[in-house]
Amino acid sequence: MVATALFMEQLDSTIVNTGIPAMAASLGVTPLSLKAVVTSYILSLAVSIPISGWLAERYGSRRIFMLAVALFTLSSVLCGLAVNSTMLIAARVPQGIAAAMMMPVGRMAILRTFPKAELLQAMNFVIIPALLGPLLGPTVGGLIVHWFTWREIFFVNIPVGLLALWFAKNYMPNYKSDTPRPLDVRGLLLFASGAGLLSWLLEVFGEIDLPGGTVAMLAAVALGLLAAYGWHAGRVPYPLLRLSLFGTRTFRVSVLGGFATRLGVGGMPFLLPLLYQLGLGFPAWQSGLLMMPAAIAAMAMKALAAPMLKRFGYRQVLIVNTLLVACAIASYSLGLFNSLQFSSMNSMAYADINDADTAMASTMASTLQQMSMSFGLAFGTGGVDAGVVGGILDAATG
């Protein structure tokens, strides 16, 4: 049931990217301006993840997981019914909140069910079916846009969501804490406002005319809020995100290394369909087909990651593979090396974490993962928007 929910979430993320040009034409906006459709989803997901673990501990993993799937499905319907870009972006926010409850709660259930020796194998077993989402999403999205309208892209989630609800009701373990920790409301406000403001600044940079002094002041406020959260987290017994876990070397290297990697690749799933359709003139269905090799390579690498890590070790694999990721971005062959990179980092993150801290570690890893994807998308689209390619893409749609 976790794989089904992840499939729905990944399908929705990738299927939307292929439909961006059609959405822009239908709603009367430029394609690059619709990056807010993606970033609003990712950012709301990132800032909501920290409370998902608390909700699961207090109300039970099964109940929260089912609530998340139902909200995700309903939000998908609202996205499909949107009449303008503002309504579409607004509907993506609760969809991101729902995904925030699905992903970490599902991962927490896996971490509590399987011993560490079987963790990589169990996570790959769940992730491989979920990778069908990125494999099918771009192609299905392109075919839907070619034959129907972009609205059907979101309606695809209805049968998948109903199936995930049935699986969750019948098979989801109901982990629940007898003594749930109190919710760090002050920490939530500091972290969410700081991360939200910083992401918004990165998203609108170059799009709206703000004085340099205003931008610097807002950036200082955002960083100040995040710094204030860091100060606050070290002084309360139950912080929203327990930053002391960064003292564990494997966790620190995994999470921060993954953050840096996603800054480089976060914008590619959004930008490549625009390049194919608007820059090179390919139809939507062909653009979707061109996204499939990366997903196929990612699925293949999941099966090879465990033996490679056992043979060469995390240090050697990650040093070599990080260089390969950089070369892969330049050649647009993203899937193979990205998959090995994140499989290695995701499994290494929990290698030295105590069982009592797995829920918090999962929450922190998921939060920073989504933040890095949001920032990576903002950096990537900001660079394109400021360059020649941005002008070509905007001019292509009049």
Can you describe this structure?
The chain is mostly helical and 398 residues long. It folds into 2 domains: 325 residues, Growth Hormone, Chain: A (Up-down Bundle), CATH 1.20.1250.20; 56 residues. 79% of the residues lie in helices and 0% in strands. The chain contains 18 helices and no strands. Helix 4 runs antiparallel to helix 17 and helix 9 runs antiparallel to helix 10. The N and C termini lie far apart (44 Å). 51% of the residues are buried. The C terminus is likely disordered.
Throw out a few tags for this protein:
2 domains, mainly alpha, disordered C terminus, 18 helices, Growth Hormone, Chain: A, 398 residues
Structural class by secondary-structure content: mainly alpha
Relevant CATH superfamily of the largest domain? MFS general substrate transporter like domains
Describe the main β-sheet briefly.
none
Q: Portion of residues in helices?
A: over 70%
N-to-C series of helices and strands: HHHHHHHHHHHHHHHHHH
Beta percentage is: under 5%
Average of pLDDT: 75
Shape call: globular
CATH class category name of the largest domain: Mainly Alpha
What number of structural domains do the residues give? 2
How large is the radius of gyration? 20 Å
Q: Write the CATH fold name of the largest domain.
A: Growth Hormone, Chain: A
CATH architecture designation of the largest domain: Up-down Bundle
By DSSP, the count of extended strands is 0
N-C termini distance = 44 Å
DSSP helix count? Answer: 18
Low-confidence stretches: 388-398
